[in-house]
Design goal:
Blueprint (H helix, E strand, L loop, with lengths): L2 H13 L1 E6 L2 E6 L21 H5 L3 H4 L14 H13 L14 H14 L3 E2 L1 H16 L16 H17 L4 E2 L1 H18 L11 H4 L4 H17 L10 H11 L6 H13 L9
Parallel strand pairs: 3-4
Antiparallel strand pairs: 1-2
Helix pairs in contact: 6-8, 7-8, 10-12
Length: 283
């Protein structure tokens, strides 16, 4: 996805408008619509050791605006493999069974259009209490997994807003004028499943919403800060106050027990340059 497409999606998902510039005229049009997106992992294979952000290379500021994020992974499972195989084979039968009643595209389109026009469900008192309870329970997951002074964030107010939208959508599906407890329960179930799949830190197995919101988990931030201080301390070991990146990396490997990569060291050097501690010359 190029930068222009990303900026357009940012505007649509944040402000529900899209700007069009043509023949020197710039206008802003309403874009109140739902967005369903799919993405393939880089190198055409999902790496379980990396986060969702690193696998699909989508900015966290854009990825975090989706209400539900599901991973569709090809995991060997006899039950699902058999079910999928039977479905594919059935497509090539000479005589296909017609005992299943199917809904036409036209009918489904009319139903959705009618629901959007006629249904404006209101949240009942019981449903409101369920929304608050569901959000608080998701928030409790973070503090319950505190380890080594780290505190992960398992849910934010953005997830609460998503719960409200999902509950209202489930009510509209039933042409209901009220959001009931059953709608909130189903929305909470969908949200928990999405968070468990997309917001799990591959290095710790813990749920951390920062993976989606910022692209970096709490543990990764802690490791980066430790590496930052180590590299900052090594700078005094260069008498000439100048050094090459490879020399710094070799010295870091010799004097530190941390297992780091060249990419991580480059990120630290970039931060040191932003903090005006060092000046990078050349490439």
């Amino acid at each position: 996805m190029n930068d222009q497409t990303r900026s357009i999606l940012h505007e649509v998902m944040e402000q529900q408008t899209v700007s069009v510039a043509k023949a020197g005229i710039i206008c802003s049009l309403n874009a109140r619509t739902s967005i369903i997106a799919s993405a393939n992992p880089r190198e055409s294979k999902y790496n379980p050791r990396l986060s969702v952000v690193d696998n699909i290379q989508l900015p966290p500021t854009l990825l975090s605006r989706f209400d539900l994020i599901y991973l569709v992974l090809d995991k060997p499972d006899p039950r699902t493999d058999r079910k999928l195989a039977k479905h594919l084979v059935s497509l090539y039968y000479l005589e296909r069974a017609q005992d299943v009643e199917r809904v036409s595209i036209e009918l489904l389109t009319d139903y959705i259009s009618y629901a959007k026009k006629t249904c404006n469900p209101l949240i009942t008192d019981e449903a409101a209490e369920k929304l608050v309870e569901g959000y608080v329970q998701m928030r409790r997951v973070g503090p319950s997994m505190v380890q080594a002074g780290r505190r992960t964030i398992s849910a934010t107010l953005r997830q609460l807003e998503s719960l409200i939208r999902l509950s209202e959508a489930l009510a509209k599906m039933e042409l209901s004028q009220q959001v009931l407890e059953k709608h909130v329960n189903e929305a909470t179930r969908l949200m928990r499943l999405a968070i468990q799949e997309a917001a799990t830190d591959p290095t710790t197995g813990q749920i951390d919403m920062d993976l989606i919101n910022t692209g970096r988990s709490a543990r990764a931030r802690q490791t980066f800060n430790q590496l930052y201080e180590v590299v900052k301390g090594l700078l005094d070991g260069f008498p000439s106050h100048s050094f090459r990146g490879d020399a710094l990396f070799d010295k870091l490997i010799e004097q530190s027990a941390m297992q780091v990569s060249h990419h991580e060291v480059e990120e630290v050097l970039q931060r040191l340059q932003e903090d005006q501690i060092i000046t990078v010359a050349g490439t």
